[in-house]
Amino acid sequence: MLSIMRNIGAAATALITVITVSGPAGTVADPRRAEWRAGYRVPDAIPFPETNPYSQAKAELGRRLFVDPILSGARDRACLTCHQPGLGWADGRARAATLAGSNMDLRTPTILNVAWQDGPLGWDGKFRDLETVARTPIAAAGNMNLKLVDAVARLKADESYSAAFAAAFGDPAVSAERLDQALATFQRTIVAKRAPFDRWIAGDEAAIPETAKRGFDLFNGKAGCAQCHSGWSFTDNSFHDIGTAEGNDIGRGRLMPKSVALRYAFKTPTLRDVELRGPYMHDGALPDLAAVINLYDRGGIDRPSRAREIKVLHLAAEEKSDLLAFLATLTGEGESNALTAPLPVDAPKP
Ligand code: HEC
Ligand code: HEC
What we know:
- The chain is mostly helical.
- It has twelve helices and two strands.
- The protein has a two-stranded antiparallel sheet with strand order 1-2.
- The longest helix is centred in the N-terminal third of the chain and has 21 residues, at about 1-20.
């Protein structure tokens, strides 16, 4: 019995050797695959800052504020107008719509997994942290167009909000800081749903097709994507020039004018649910994921600020489709989302 098993083992080894030597590139798992897979486990808990800890009542209040047009001057917009769960928590547009019906300079980014963004927010990092973001869209004349003092006054005048603020903060006082904190707490519960990729990482080999596994190897190996789209949320929360942006927007370079590397640098977006979120990039310039892969294959615009990780890749057609197949495994499954799911009593798990 033992010797038969040894023989089978030897035959299998021989077969693998044959494939390795003569098979087309990528038909065999990269030897580093197991090590790479270990870096993508879903974390155990959602991080909340000590300065704004989770509570169910605060998250409930934040959820209500997120969808309520009371926070816009003409009561015609809410955060939800642009950050929609069915569109990957963005709006499906190349660039966000101004109140006047024209385009802003930037595309609406997803707010999925924003709890893990421990660096600055916004495409160019203009926002220090999540608590400081909401004031900008509320007050911007071309966006929600409501002065912060007026937002606070409206909420004070609404008795049902007084009760909700009291439940969240212990007393019914309404302030801009509390508004920020409640909205941030809710947004941290907006977490990527489990995707086929996660079932594969957890050990289910049948969860994703072979082509996607080859794409995973490329993503982590030859194509170098994971150097920036790293970890379970597929972002290093940092800023890079990937050789896109042909216009005048120099991104983080505007805020950090002395740095050459930050010219044309934009935030690395999460790739969770990326399929649901086209068109792509900070300016929506790329219509689909095939165009994104082609950009990386060409190495983008060669200029002094371009990240050293970006180079011409010379991907074969099959490798491009493997990468696309891999990206498709990051789309979460199931209907429920942070807008509709019951909010947990204790700090929620992802
Ligand atoms: C008209 C569409 C629109 C509305 C309404 C809107 N946003 Fe946004 N949101 C955007 C755009 C565009 C950006 C990118 C801004 C930038 O990078 O400077 C953004 C960025 C963000 C970010 C940063 C995400 C990241 O990954 O860096 C957060 C958080 C956010 N919005 C939350 C909100 C909240 C909360 C509200 C409601 C108070 C809101 N948004 C209303 C379009 C919108
Ligand atoms: C040097 C860091 C870096 C590397 C390497 C990198 N990316 Fe990116 N990626 C970014 C940044 C930064 C952006 C946003 C750029 C912008 O908006 O102008 C981005 C955007 C994207 C987007 C668009 C997402 C969206 O919501 O708009 C996709 C898809 C993507 N990258 C996939 C890949 C793939 C696949 C690879 C490997 C072939 C890769 N990236 C390699 C940093 C990187």
